[in-house]
């Protein structure tokens, strides 16, 4: 019997399973003890638990909302408003910072020393300054350096800039706007499809540029015709009392958050782009020159497709950081998801539920970004044969 037990114990697989079971049992036991202890302490203090509060009236205003909201709305509605605000800022930051960072990253490799040094100074300044300091700087600049509404600047007719934000005309939603959006989406889908098919069909690759230009020209003509014929109407801002009404508004809070996040993120994206391009072997440039390609053609057709495969993993981490950095919106007063949850916790005292929702939402967003970027990374990866 002793020999049998000894052989079982010295079996590598048995010991591995035993250790894992012990660790799992310890983890479950610790979580269970914490849950029971927390429940007893909450009950002793008379603090309610559960998620029933989500259906109750929020009773607090949200300064900026992309959907209808008022203080009589439920906490669930308030959470939805905060989540949409967070996604709105995150998506805009990712798109703009990626474009700006790519330009700056290629600028750092410029043969012009002025351009290269300016790009280098930009990257060093914004990467080595805390983001919250940058947000406060932009917010202070927008609120302290701008005039009051009655003395608002008007750089372009119909566009007003004051300490309350930037006010500009905005199209009134109607069937024509919906049709134009559908045309735009169809044009983007067609361009993506053409780009995908052209990789397999060399004949279409030669005509791809012409097809893209045709789609853009048709879309531009359609939009210009709709505006010229008056089928697209604009709502113009006008001074009313101490503020402007009508049109669209970029508030100082939103603008400071966007400017800070974009400039900060673009500095990191620039280094990712610069490093990926530098990692492509110099022989690829020489091969392009040997077949008569110009430098821009080599960069666009030879180097960037290879560098893109190196950019995707660090870009994924940077995009995840963008979502997490939006929680600093509280510093400038923008009502993102974290700010709405914090207000809810202060009112309901249900911190555990609030933090659990906060963690679940940000975890879901991060996993969604990771899954998408991993799928894209697999689609552009080289296939080994």
TrEMBL record:
<keyword id="KW-0813">Transport</keyword>
<dbReference type="InterPro" id="IPR035906">
    <property type="entry name" value="MetI-like_sf"/>
</dbReference>
<dbReference type="GO" id="GO:0022857">
    <property type="term" value="F:transmembrane transporter activity"/>
</dbReference>
<feature type="transmembrane region" description="Helical">
    <location>
        <begin position="125"/>
        <end position="145"/>
    </location>
</feature>
<feature type="transmembrane region" description="Helical">
    <location>
        <begin position="176"/>
        <end position="198"/>
    </location>
</feature>
<dbReference type="Pfam" id="PF00528">
    <property type="entry name" value="BPD_transp_1"/>
</dbReference>
<dbReference type="GO" id="GO:0043190">
    <property type="term" value="C:ATP-binding cassette (ABC) transporter complex"/>
</dbReference>
<keyword id="KW-0812">Transmembrane</keyword>
<feature type="transmembrane region" description="Helical">
    <location>
        <begin position="210"/>
        <end position="234"/>
    </location>
</feature>
<keyword id="KW-0472">Membrane</keyword>
<feature type="transmembrane region" description="Helical">
    <location>
        <begin position="16"/>
        <end position="36"/>
    </location>
</feature>
<keyword id="KW-1003">Cell membrane</keyword>
<keyword id="KW-0029">Amino-acid transport</keyword>
<dbReference type="InterPro" id="IPR000515">
    <property type="entry name" value="MetI-like"/>
</dbReference>
<feature type="transmembrane region" description="Helical">
    <location>
        <begin position="355"/>
        <end position="376"/>
    </location>
</feature>
<keyword id="KW-1133">Transmembrane helix</keyword>
<protein>
    <submittedName>
        <fullName>Amino-acid transporter subunit membrane component of ABC superfamily</fullName>
    </submittedName>
</protein>
<dbReference type="InterPro" id="IPR043429">
    <property type="entry name" value="ArtM/GltK/GlnP/TcyL/YhdX-like"/>
</dbReference>
<comment type="similarity">
    <text>Belongs to the binding-protein-dependent transport system permease family. HisMQ subfamily.</text>
</comment>
<feature type="transmembrane region" description="Helical">
    <location>
        <begin position="83"/>
        <end position="105"/>
    </location>
</feature>
<feature type="transmembrane region" description="Helical">
    <location>
        <begin position="254"/>
        <end position="273"/>
    </location>
</feature>
<dbReference type="InterPro" id="IPR010065">
    <property type="entry name" value="AA_ABC_transptr_permease_3TM"/>
</dbReference>
<dbReference type="GO" id="GO:0006865">
    <property type="term" value="P:amino acid transport"/>
</dbReference>
<feature type="domain" description="ABC transmembrane type-1">
    <location>
        <begin position="83"/>
        <end position="373"/>
    </location>
</feature>
């Amino acid at each position: 019997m002793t020999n049998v037990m000894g052989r079982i114990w010295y079996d590598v697989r048995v010991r591995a399973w035993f250790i894992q079971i012990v660790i799992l049992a310890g983890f479950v036991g610790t979580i269970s003890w914490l849950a029971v202890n927390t429940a007893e302490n909450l009950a002793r203090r008379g603090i309610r638990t559960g998620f029933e509060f989500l259906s109750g009236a929020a009773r607090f205003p949200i300064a900026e909302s992309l959907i209808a909201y008022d203080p009589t709305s439920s906490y669930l509605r308030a959470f939805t408003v905060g989540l949409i605000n967070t996604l709105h800022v995150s998506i805009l930051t990712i798109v703009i910072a990626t474009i700006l960072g790519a330009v700056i990253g290629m600028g750092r490799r410029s043969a012009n020393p002025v351009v290269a040094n300016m790009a280098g100074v930009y990257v060093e300044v914004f990467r080595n300054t805390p983001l919250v300091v940058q947000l406060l700087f932009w917010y202070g600049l927008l609120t302290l350096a701008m005039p009051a509404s009655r003395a608002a600047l008007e750089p372009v007719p119909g566009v007003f800039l004051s300490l309350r934000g930037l006010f500009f005309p905005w199209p009134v939603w109607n069937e024509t706007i919906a049709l134009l959006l559908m045309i735009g989406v169809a044009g983007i889908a067609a361009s993506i499809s053409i780009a995908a098919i052209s990789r397999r069909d060399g004949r279409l690759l030669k005509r791809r540029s012409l097809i893209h230009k045709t789609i853009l020209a048709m879309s531009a003509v359609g939009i210009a015709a709709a505006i010229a014929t008056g089928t697209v109407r604009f709502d113009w801002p006008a001074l009313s009392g101490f503020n402007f009404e009508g049109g669209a508004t970029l508030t100082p809070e939103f603008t400071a958050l966007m400017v800070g996040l974009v400039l900060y993120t673009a500095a990191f994206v620039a280094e990712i782009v610069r490093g990926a391009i530098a990692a492509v072997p110099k022989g690829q440039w020489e091969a392009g020159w040997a077949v008569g390609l110009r430098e821009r053609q080599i960069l666009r057709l030879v180097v960037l497709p290879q560098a893109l495969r190196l950019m995707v993993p660090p870009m994924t981490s940077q995009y995840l950081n963008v979502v997490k950095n939006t929680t600093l919106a509280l510093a400038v007063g923008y009502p993102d998801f974290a700010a709405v949850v914090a207000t809810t916790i202060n009112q309901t005292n249900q911190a555990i539920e609030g933090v659990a929702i906060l963690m679940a939402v940000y975890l879901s967003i991060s996993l969604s970004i990771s899954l998408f970027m991993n799928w894209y990374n697999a689609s552009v990866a080289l296939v080994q044969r």
